[in-house]
Amino acid sequence: MPTRRDAPLDPPPGLLRLNETAPLHRLRYPDGHEGWLITRHSLVRAVLADARFSARSELKRVPAPRPGADPFIGEPALPGWLVDMDRPEHTRIRRPISGPFTMRAVDRLRPRIRQIVDEHLSAMREQGPPADLVASFALPVPSLVICELLGVPYGSRAGFQRAGAVLFSLEVSAAQATEAMAELDGFLLDLVRHRRRRPGDDLLGRLVSGTDLGDEEIAGLGVLLLTAGHETTAGMLGLGTLALLTHPDQLAALRADPALLPGAVEELLRYLTIFHFGVPRTPLVDVELEGRLIRAGESVTLSLPAANRDPAAFDAPDVLDVTRSARGHVAFGYGVHQCVGQNLARAELEIGLGALLSGFPGLRLAVPVEDVPLAADSGFYGVHALPVAW
Ligand code: HEM
């Protein structure tokens, strides 16, 4: 799969060109076997909504494994790790966590998110420029929010942020990733066992006392929510700010009319599509798609960045336009596995970017754009640091 980017905010040109030729393509995986790559928006959504395509990890092959690692996962899902499960097991794990992430539940969190955002921006302002926006703002805000929601002590962030970054990094060995997973799992398991003794009103506490999920399942789910809950939104806050700072006309439009903010967040999600290597699936039976036969067991990768830049779905898809409607984008996936945390991520992005733009009218990059360290080596695209001044 083409992975070399020419420009930091655009998917690899080789990937985008595929949309001009066909909706699906043969894809040679790093171990040499041939599978399929689907780039067209309508087909990506159709496959993600099609129960004949399995998400089970024992069948999945990932398109961008760690160097030297086997793309074939080959192991059943870890307990609670619902992203690797099919129905009905998937539903059993997902149902108990749907409530806290609905739009209404997230709306109730907004004042607290606003407070966390304001506190971090005030601290950054007090320290004075230049600042690393990732360390001062983009990483701590979603980390603190997900910690409070789950009931994970924020004081332990150094450990879980480091282990989380290892878990999603493609530069570390498979053994290091397994070690990071074991560390996170042990950490969450301790918290879950503690809740069994002293139940609390946070999400871990409610999963312990209000569901029939076992300790290992709640711990695994906790690892997934904790890591996906901060790495992703941090990536979007950093990269979204970089996108706006390098598109001054869009930044000016947004500053002139803050009512554009919710739409601008959707557009940034579409344009940047940080889940940049695509989503793996495996057909359980032979399936015909667009006149091509995909055999049961063949590896299929759905490219979310290519789908979100498909000209058949979005006019001038390579243009960042905060006034457009980006409805229907697949930055959060689609179908039964569509992101659990999407409403929370939207709220954090809207509140975070809104406060940053209004509170720092002179915000600018403190280094040339070429010097911004990009997280191309992580499963979620983003920036490792974003030096800014104001
Ligand atoms: C699933 C993207 C934020 C938790 C997904 C999927 C994508 C995605 C593409 C689908 C994966 C698949 O189909 O295999 C994003 C992006 C985010 C974000 C771009 C931020 C901008 C969050 C947050 C949380 C979260 C804040 C938790 C609080 C999850 C979980 C799943 C998931 C648990 C698995 C859902 C399932 O399998 O049913 N996310 N996510 N994500 N996301 Fe997010």
UniProtKB/TrEMBL annotation:
Note the CDD domains from the entry.
Answer: CYP105-like
Q: Name one GO molecular function term.
A: heme binding
Q: InterPro entries from the xrefs? A: Cyt_P450, Cyt_P450_B, Cyt_P450_CS, Cyt_P450_sf
- Determine if Iron is one of this entry's keywords: yes
Q: Does the keyword Metal-binding apply?
A: yes
Instruction: Give the signal peptide range.
Output: none
Recite the UniProt keywords alphabetically: Heme, Iron, Metal-binding, Monooxygenase, Oxidoreductase
Identify the domain of life. Answer: Bacteria
Q: What family is reported?
A: Belongs to the cytochrome P450 family.
Q: Give the protein name, as stated in the record.
A: Cytochrome P450
- Origin species, per record, is Streptomyces eurocidicus (Streptoverticillium eurocidicus)
